[in-house]
Amino acid sequence: MAEQPEAYPTLAGLRVIDAMHPGLISCSPSTPLRAVARMMALYRVHAILVTAHGEEELPPGRWGIVSDTDLLQAAERGGLDEQESASIAASPVLTIASSDDLARAAELMAEHRASHLVVVERRSGRPVGVLSTLDVARALADFPETHPMR
After folding, report:
1. What is the per-residue pLDDT across 126-148, written as a single tens digit (0 to 9) for each?
2. Residues contacting residue 72 through CB under 8 Å, at least 6 positions apart
3. How far is CA 115 from CA 46, 109, 123, 144, in A?
4. Other CB atoms closer than 10 Å to residue 124's CB: what's the count?
5. How many H helices and E strands in the chain?
6. Residue 122 · residue 96 · CB < 8 Å
7. What pTM does this model have?
8. Which residue ranges form the domains of the chain, and what is each CATH number?
9. DSSP percent split of the chain into helix, strand, coil, nearest 5
10. CA dist 19 to 29, 33, 59, 69, 144, Å?
11. Three-class SS of residue 75?
């Protein structure tokens, strides 16, 4: 008799909090794009939240996000020292609650062709982390559900 394959997690069986990167790295709308690139390199992240300094409590419609892809496209046009983060930030930012199913997050990403979602607390709307397409892929490739994700 053939062995049954191990049960790997499905997106519907996981929550966003199981796969997200907790915490956020942010910059002000006036931050030069070269400084944004330095932040990405220093912290090894692919997206930076753009918001007024220390004001992550602002409603989601007031945030922006700069991805590494946005930064590369801006670099092709030149002027990384003259352009500010607000000039290329995607806004409004797509958000998802940390308690939502990872399947819903994947649907949002696919529907909007987005590589990152800002993860928020359901009640307060306060940002608590970022979920990337790589995080979703890592969740799919990980060990059975009994194995901790991190």
Report:
1. 889 999 999 998 888 874 553 44
2. none
3. 9, 6, 24, 25
4. 9
5. 4, 7
6. no
7. 0.78
8. 11-141 (3.10.580.10)
9. 35, 20, 45
10. 28, 28, 24, 21, 14
11. helix
